[in-house]
Design a protein that fits this description.
By secondary structure, the protein is of the alpha/beta class. It has two domains: about 190 residues, Rossmann fold (3-Layer(aba) Sandwich), CATH 3.40.50; about 80 residues, UDP-galactose 4-epimerase, domain 1, CATH 3.90.25.10. Helices cover about 40% and strands about 15% of the residues. The strands form three sheets. The chain has a six-stranded parallel β-sheet, sandwiched between helices. Strands 6, 8, 10 and 12 form a four-stranded mixed β-sheet that branches. A two-stranded parallel ribbon has the order 7-11. Helix 4 runs parallel beside helix 5 and helix 6 crosses helix 8. The protein starts with 6 loop residues before the first strand and ends in a 9-residue tail after the last helix. The structure holds NADP nicotinamide-adenine-dinucleotide phosphate.
Length: about 325
Amino acid sequence: MKKDNKIYVAGHNGMVGAAICRVLAAHGYSQIIGKSSKELDLRNQAAVINFFKTEKPSVVIDAAARVGGILANSNYPYQFLMDNLLIQNNLINGAFENQADKFIFLGSSCIYPKLAPQPLKEEYLLTSELEPTNEWYAIAKITGVKACEAIRKQYQKDFVSLMPTNLYGSFDNFDLQTSHVLPAMIRKFYDATINNHATVTLWGSGTPMREFLHVDDMAKAVLFALENTLPEYLYNVGTGVDLTIKELAELIQKVTGHKGEIIWDSSKPDGTRRKLMDNSKLQQLGWKYQIELEQGIQQTYDWFLKNIHQYKTVKM
Ligand SMILES: NC(=O)c1ccc[n+]([C@@H]2O[C@H](COP(=O)([O-])OP(=O)(O)OC[C@H]3O[C@@H](n4cnc5c(N)ncnc54)[C@H](OP(=O)(O)O)[C@@H]3O)[C@@H](O)[C@H]2O)c1
């Protein structure tokens, strides 16, 4: 991969896309291009065709998606299915038709069946039913994985899919209405600390287990896929290490300096008991995560403190 190859990062303003741009720039890639959804709505096929004809990127990294939690997925199933299909179809086919050398498609662990054995291996894809709460998103993402696999098979093109575990880091979403568990906890402990509240109430029993990967490590996995021709069509990206939600809360409490008690509201749902990715395939090829969870939470908390002015502080 030449450092002056034109690399289009779709979704460059998002948490993952921004991390990819930072890592690529730090590694000397000089022609990174991105367009906001206002400048180029990736659901608009004609606009995307025009963009590819004009720009002709040699690499396309797809970090653009309509993303959201259980509530958004269940309220807007059609948008989660169709927007994501449109975005990825336009990108995959645009790259293919315009002879891009490489396409890196990002999805998530929700593509795997609800009851698949843990840790989740790539070969469990399409072996049984999906988790119904996000099946719309998952079906779109599975279609993207399969489209890239089909292009690989039929045309021997380097189109590859990476499936990250739960990500966190700079530019995360700290809005309590829509955020994932890790940034939501940072926000809750921060709000409790500045309001001098001795207790923090968190959802569920604290016993489910989850895996977390810093977004900068994810971006380095993308760099790895960019600089190497990976032999398979699909790779999981994670740490291979999980912890209970209770252990996560205690780590975040330590980093934020909150001294009080954590109350577990067991009337709220726990979600899946465990979700751990088997990332041995990518590790065997030479990629490994570098940022340990406590260090990553500290970095994310520092970023949050510097950018807190963007978020409304909750007075409790
Ligand atoms: N965050 C995680 O924990 C996580 C975990 C696993 C996998 N992933 C995957 O990583 C990818 C990116 O996620 P993220 O967390 O970075 O999401 P994000 O912060 O919400 O960013 C999504 C990006 O997609 C762009 N986008 C959405 N709709 C678009 C449209 N119609 N046209 C053009 N651009 C559009 C947005 O552009 P604008 O900002 O310009 O609107 C934004 O830059 C997704 O495929 C997701 O499944 C994320």
